[in-house]
Amino acid sequence: MSSAHASPSALDVLLSRASTDHLSAPAPDKAQIARILSAGLRAPDHGKIRPWRYIVIKGKHRAEFAEQVIKAMISADPKVPEKKIAKRRQRFSEMPMTIALVMALDPESKIPLQEQELSVGAGVMNVLNALHMEGFGGFWVSSDFAGQPCFREALGLSDSQRLAGFLFVGTPDKPVHGSKRPDIEDYMGFYKGEPVKFGADQ
Ligand SMILES: Cc1cc2nc3c(=O)[nH]c(=O)nc-3n(C[C@H](O)[C@H](O)[C@H](O)COP(=O)(O)O)c2cc1C
């Protein structure tokens, strides 16, 4: 923590973020989640594509949503183990809130799709940080089954929309410390007229 500040600086808070899926109620209320997701819309956005869409799943709709997840998992792999189904059913119906992270891409744009996808990712990171700043926790998970037509239809995704995963959201059960982070010295270098070598790659 910077000695110039009695309370943690914004950077101190960013440096203390870590993921957790040990989450309980309460989830953010309607006004809180709207403000938190507004941080996602602060992501850099080349060409003003506005590729971010957030589908919030909460309350009684969690169980219905979990069933759509199971349907899609079975559609993707009819032999999916029962244990995996049970775990996903439990997580999607019991997490206080799930946010489906939709990438609304414009394939006709001169802005490369990779940049549009990166903008969605940058938005998700802002949302994770905003959750942390407001005392909530979040965990980004993959959506390997989300390409299934039944699931795309259930969510109302158009042909150019894809999922970047889901965020599980709620209040951390206990203080989150997260894993030890690597040393920044191994991940940064100064260009001095020669190719840069990183400690992380040695
Ligand atoms: C796009 C994306 C998808 C992820 N999917 C999963 C997942 O399906 N399951 C999982 O355990 N972690 C997944 N993770 C990793 C966790 O969200 C988290 O980052 C990881 O547990 C490390 O925690 P940290 O954020 O505190 O470093 C994913 C991360 C990203 C960026």
UniProtKB/TrEMBL annotation:
Its EC number is 1.-.-.-. Gene3D superfamilies: NADH Oxidase. It is an enzyme of class 1 (oxidoreductase). Keywords: Flavoprotein, FMN, NAD, NADP, Oxidoreductase. It comes from the Bacteria. The keyword NADP applies. Its cofactor is FMN. Residues 16-170 form the Nitroreductase domain. PANTHER family: NAD(P)H NITROREDUCTASE YDJA-RELATED (PTHR43821). Belongs to the nitroreductase family. This is Putative NAD(P)H nitroreductase. It comes from Asaia spathodeae.
